[in-house]
Amino acid sequence: MAKADIWMPLYIGDYLADTTRLTTEQHGAYLLLIMDYWRNGPPPDDDIILCSVCRANAQSWKKLRPVMVRFFEVRDANWHHSRIDREIADAAKAKDKAVSKASKGAEARWGKHAAEQENNNAPSISSSNAPSNASSISQAMLEQCSLPSPSLNSKTKSKADATASRLPADWQPDERQIEFCSAERPDLDPMTVADRFRDYWIAVPGVKGRKTDWMATWRNWVRSERQQARASPERPKKFDPTAYVNRNKTRAKDERTIEFDQHGEPI
């Protein structure tokens, strides 16, 4: 008997029609029996093994056996189930058919690719078709490889990663960068922008902190930098009449406490 797949078809209508008189315990025992049948084939007519399959003890199995055996045919020292045997056979045929179809499709693709490669390598290829033929050959070779080959994008990315670098910890803007900042954003102080630029990129971890063109990164940073707030002139203080009155009272009190000598001069 062919080994069944992990799935098992269960036709609810047919199952309920055949098991309307079963109790809850009998339903459980019957489902365990047919699931074990699907995975391992017909169980042997051995009460110890059948007890184990049904998760029942000897006393419970003594009551379950006469009910369960009605769904099976005891033959050749095994319990056979005609419906499950038929479903297993149908599943095996469907699986074999699918495998055969997939194999034929794979052979057709491989044959087509081999023919294309042979035609593309023929001496009669004209120079005008060279780019398209090279593309076809490359695509065919990529599809025939057992392991995925790196794409052109991955090669470009690898080269970019190799030339990328981090911003030095002691970086200072050069003359070109200062001139660009002054011309592009006259509202900014180039050295203040450079301090924020350096502190930010030095703190960025990993690959994100590596750039292939720091001049381009500087230009983008300057363009997106927020406008610096300008110092506003100090506003005149508001007149406080209470403070004015209190100051006058203090002055009058000081004048009353001044003592004068005999010549009229304050002591």
Identify the notable features of this structure and list them briefly.
mainly alpha, 4 strands, 267 residues, two-stranded antiparallel sheet
Describe the structure.
By secondary structure, this protein is mainly alpha-helical. Helix content is 60%, strand content 4%. A hairpin with a 2-residue loop joins strand 1 and strand 2 (78-80). Helix 5 runs antiparallel to helix 6 (130-144) and helix 8 (175-184) runs parallel beside helix 10. The chain starts with 11 loop residues before the first helix and ends in an 11-residue tail after the last helix. Mean pLDDT is 79; it is low at 146-150.
Form type: elongated
**Secondary-structure element sequence?**
HHHHEEHHHEHHEHH
Strand order of the largest sheet: 1-2
Continuous helix count: 11
**First-to-last CA distance:** 131 Å
Mean pLDDT: 79
Could you give a short account of the major beta sheet?
2 strands, antiparallel
Radius of gyration over alpha carbons? 46 Å
Helical amount: 55-70%
Uncertain stretches? 146-150
Strand content: under 5%
Q: Helices and strands: which structural class?
A: mainly alpha
Number of β-strand runs: 4
